[in-house]
Amino acid sequence: MNWNHFIGFAVVAVICWVMGSLRALLDTKSPSKGASWAYCSGIVVYCAFIIGFWISLKRPPLRTMGETRLWYSLFMALSGMLTYRIWKYRWILSFSTLMASVFICINLLKPEIHSQSLMPALQSPWFIPHVTLYMFSYALFACTFLLVVGSWIWPSLEIENALHNLCTTGLAFFTIGMLLGAIWAKEAWGSFWSWDPKETWAAITWITFLIYLLLNDAAEDETSFAKKRKQLRLLLVLGFLFLQICWYGINYLPNAAGSIHNYA
Amino acid sequence: MNLSIFSFPVNLIVGLVLLGAGALIPLIGTRKHLAIALALFALMCMVQGLVPMQMQFNRSIPFIVALLWLLFVLSSFVFHYPMSHGKGAFLIYAGLLVSLLSGGLGACDAYKVQTMAWRSEFSSVHPMPFSIRLENFRMETFPTGEPMNYTAVLTAQSHNEDKTQHKFTLQVNHPVTIEKHQIYLQGYDTQKGSDTPYCTLLVTYQPWRWLIFSGILIMLCGALVMFLRGLISSKKRLLP
Description:
The complex is a heterodimer. Chain A is an all-alpha fold. Helix content of chain A is 72%, strand content 0%. Chain A has helices at 6-26, 33-57, 65-87, 92-109, 127-153, 160-188, 197-219, 225-247. In chain B, strand 2 (130-141) and strand 3 form a beta hairpin.
């Protein structure tokens, strides 16, 4: 099995995921059995490709950039499914399908990337969890931002619980991603934290969301908490902006050239 | 700022004083004070994130003052934390306290030097307690010619009277500990590949690293608890 077979498996998997996501949105029951079955079938099909590819390569498909993206999509779908089963959020499957499909599309549209090698520093078991957890937390934080923007357009929109849950889960994933990165940095670069621009902006983002949760919980004790909470939502917007700087914005900052996170 | 004035045992005393002050002064450990201290520290991080890294803003007085203030407020917050506010968050703050305290104060005892190991002779850089010589260097490349993996076989010779020798193998992402120092393989002469006459090494000495690591582990547990508790509370707090 090789990359040429990928498109077939990917198309079937994405169709299953889209069907599962639609079913989850439309079904009166949540979690819906039909949605879960459709979604899991997609994961099985996608897994089948990875296993076949692994066997034919005679090594785990984790070396090239394209191969690692293959795993991103799998994890994205898996975490979406788990979150849906436990949290029962109807929208989460559409969201994880979108994220997984983006990575599949990059793999399909940029085939030359499959031959690109992975430099020795990136060849580490920490690479996948570090990056995938970050990607998932980025997605959850983006969702809080969209909800806040929605609440500006429709002021009566009830988003408090969703913001709290998304922010808590996003922060948990972000924290784990960051700490696994720190442990990896100790193995690869000699220190847990080196105030590299990427690390610094990750710290700023992390602190911003941490302050949001800290003050949001504090506001719960006060009588005027509804008004206060609305003001606090600005912190989520700010956090989302810092996240964009951390993710790709640092490439435009003057000190980015010295970043050890620069793998372009 | 020269951090050596804070080296052991001064840093240990500063750390204990901060913890003691935090434990004795509950007034400062409120969520609002912590939010302000975190925001102040984030502001310092922003400056660090905008200025060139060579300026070492993270070793400047404003940065260190903001860090020490954060540590003081954080320790008071952790010592007087009402557990009803969530154990996950508590572990994150406690872990943050341990890792920031040991990372910040431990930095005064730590050092990091870059050195080269040559095939011909032992070499060393101050204050390493040993010298290193390159014995063998192997590399594998991708079909594109880019390096896939490289391995260096080295010998370290101690500076003590016995001149004890340690032979070891290094790979990227696989450091080796010799005489309480960690040695990392960084690079080689890319023009010559396997025939490189030298390899570049990073040698670090970080006696507080286990404390930092335990802080990281506590935070990891906190994040896991936070995630799992989120799962439980989400059953009560369903989305509209």
